[in-house]
Amino acid sequence: MQTAADAPGDPLARVGPNAITRVGEALDGLYGRATTYAVFADAGLTSYLEAWPREMVAEGAVAGLNRALHAHLPETGFRRVAREAGGRTGDYLLAHRIPKPVQALLRPAPAWLASRVLLAAIARNAWTFAGSGRFDAAAGRPCVVTIAGCPLCREIAADHPVCDTYTGTFERLFRELVHPQAAATETACQAAGAKACRFEIRW
């Protein structure tokens, strides 16, 4: 039976290039270029190793890269690389996408308020990372993010969550802008049979 994680998604959907660039950087740093090449070759994306993408990329390419990463590395290695890629994505967003005046306002604000503002900003820009997936978020303790039709776990079957790139990004942003002890966890994943991928951020 086909699940939402197996669905092909929208062939025209695009996501931001961080989904490829930061995975490549994390692989290079943790495993070296030979492993990076093998993973990207399996995904049919070796052309990106000559020059990282600067424009939006096909959602299917990102899904294929996460499948290749999951297939090539043991679980601990996969999760380490994906988390590192997510953290690097968060760093990029802090450096280039979230205005410095906004960051200056959020950091000293009460966590309950900062979390609501940050979640609203993430929701407005969800199309840049969730692609054709259906994004939803609710502020609270914990904050909860769900993505149905999640591109990261498409066509992956696992007994554990595999969307660690998103988890790493959410955690980095919340630690920097909401609370230094914020921790993000994926509590349900379509790869493991859930109807949607669910993330909780606590502090």
TrEMBL record:
Annotated source species: Rhodovibrio sodomensis
SMART domains in the record: V4R (SM00989)
Source species, domain of life: Bacteria
Protein name per UniProt: Bacteriochlorophyll 4-vinyl reductase
InterPro entries: BchJ, NO_sig/Golgi_transp_ligand-bd, V4R
4-vinyl reductase 4VR domain ranges (all copies): 142-203
Gene that produces this protein: bchJ
Spans traversing the lipid bilayer: none
Pfam family, one: V4R
UniProt xrefs under PANTHER family: DNA-DIRECTED RNA POLYMERASE SUBUNIT I, SLR0144 PROTEIN
